[in-house]
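Running log. JK asked me to keep both predictions on one page so they can be read side by side. First protein, sequence followed by its tokens:
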Amino acid sequence: MALDSAKKAEIVAKFAKKPGDTGSTEVQV
């Protein structure tokens, strides 16, 4: 599943529990 950087950042920001949290289960799915 390829996502451009802007879209990925948007999704990460949406699902992250806190800013910079890329370790959340939702983010990794």
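And the second, directly underneath as requested:
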Amino acid sequence: MFKFSLNQNSLLIYYLIFIFLSSQIISNVEKELKNANMSDKTKFELEFVIHASPQLLYNYIATPSGLSEWYADNVNSRGEMFTFIWDGAEEKAKMLKRKSEEFVKFAWEENEDGSFFEMRIIVDEITKDVSLFITDFAEDDEVDEAKMLWENQVSDLKQVLGST
């Protein structure tokens, strides 16, 4: 027969392995739940032709002063955190990524579902037309409203740029 003897060191090692594996399982479950929550939202994309240079357009989509001209009443930033103000109400978003003259990607602080919104500048190689490509997420029953909001906001942007 086999004889097993567990000393305190062995028990400690088994306990630590158990804790590690448990934390990995919990982490995986949390990720799955987060991904499941994101599936509650619908991703949508919009494209708008903008008569402006990519450099100028980028300043309006990536800087607090530019965003304040068309997207919100006021925008402040501290590092990668942006505060958007509409009618006195504040919403915070983190700038996740950016590439000069190409795109900015934000995530609302209140959303923990992995959703984001992105504004990407596309230049047609042949015609040199400049487009603003929007990617965003909304609840299934709010997609049309969200699209309309973007259409209104981008209309304001075009007016500011003299691109109407």
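Observation for JK regarding the second prediction: The radius of gyration is 23 Å.
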